[in-house]
Please model this.
Amino acid sequence: MSDHATNAATETFVAHRNLLFTVAYEMLGSAADAEDVLQETWLRWVKVDLGQVRDQRAYLVRITTRQSLNRLRTMKRRREAYVGQWLPEPMLTAPDVAEDVELAESVSMAMMLILETLSPTERAVFVLREVFDVGYDEIAAAVDKSPGAVRQIAHRARQHVDARRPRKVVSPSEARAALESFQRALETRDPQDLLDVLAPEVVLVSDGGGVKRAALRPVIGAEKVVRFYLGGSGKTEGTITCDPTVVNGNPALVVRLDGEIDGVMAIRVEDARITGLYYVRNPEKLSRVESETPLTLR
Model:
């Protein structure tokens, strides 16, 4: 490829990099794996004759989708052997992502867990269609299915997700208010304050990856969640602090023990109370939280 062609390919790739990363991340739930997919996409992209490509954005999305599908199928075995509960790798996002309510919901911890229940092809179709509004013909080319089959898959995946997603999407300000109340309750360690901000049916999912202490199964119910937290923090030696941030497009807390990051706590809010807590403690999933610049996505 000539220098001119390489420069053109590079400019196009860079222009769409955030979009491609988001597609890969929403399919894989891992920022590290999404970065690997982008590298594979780039290696294939620079070999393409750009003069033969009618829609470069669509072509890049197609390459990224195929590489993500390949990786997703191999990752399934890794997930099955995972110790305890698996949560997506937390991703720092710019504050303005939270203002795009639909995008913020699509990358939230709660939604990413729902997407985990789809088959690889269903997940790809749902992400491309529902999140990025890609046409059925383009999706069909990306997943090697007919447009008619893709429509059926999209309908089935949408029904599956709609049955499990929150009843309504809350505003960023409502989510921030719930998080602030939760942070104060955590810092005071007052059981009643915690119960006041948690919904009775709240579910806590914690991911230690077999390295850090975490519940092997979801903890369900406000009183059980409070006992789990207070019991665990009571055994912890050192000073625990919580710093608000934006993770996966939603308000979250970075929890530190004696100044060192211990985990990331994301929340799901409905009717001004917290219905989901997602606590990532696996050290392999936390390195980017300290080192990466928040992503703008898209």
